[in-house]
Amino acid sequence: xxxxxxxxxxxxxxxxxxxxxxxxxxxxxxxxxxxxxxxxxxxxxxxxxxxxxxxxxxxxxxxxxxxxxxxxxxxxxxxxxxxxxxxxxxxxxxxxxxxxxxxxxxxxxxxxxxxxxxxxxxxxxxxxxxxxxxxxxxxxxxxxxxxxxxxxxxxxxxxxxxxxxxxxxxxxxxxxxxxxxxxxxxxxxx
Length: 190
Known about the structure:
Blueprint lengths: L22 E10 L2 E7 L3 H7 L6 E2 L6 E2 L12 E4 L6 E5 L9 E5 L13 H4 L25 H4 L2 H15 L2 H14 L3
Parallel strand pairs: 1-7
Antiparallel strand pairs: 1-2, 3-4, 5-6, 5-7
């Protein structure tokens, strides 16, 4: 028995036909990002999307890199969706924890205007110029026992001061940052 999706008529080629908690005699229609799909009773949103060959389910928050489903349970880091419409929508739900029901409406997150064409994905073209980001642990040292220490023990004093000033300046508004930067530059010995 090959199941077919609701609108496209394409077979659910990714569906495993085995004894499971999914009742393939009870089809359920649901909507993801404006497109209708068909799943079965017992499917989670993630399993129904995968069965319908939908692998892109979201974008990363910062750089809008494509995200797919990686896990099958509550530990899923990528498949965060918004369930419902309008003011009653609930964001940041894991697709692996939502059992589909008739009329379910879900949307991907972190995309503008759509998941496949995301303006923020321009970052992917320029990704070689974007480092991974600032990780606070890069400025941590270690004791002889191996436990991590704070910045003042493992980092040279000049670098520790520079990191502290950078963190403070990024939290301030732009005119204030410029004024403080100029004061710091003027206060440096020649």
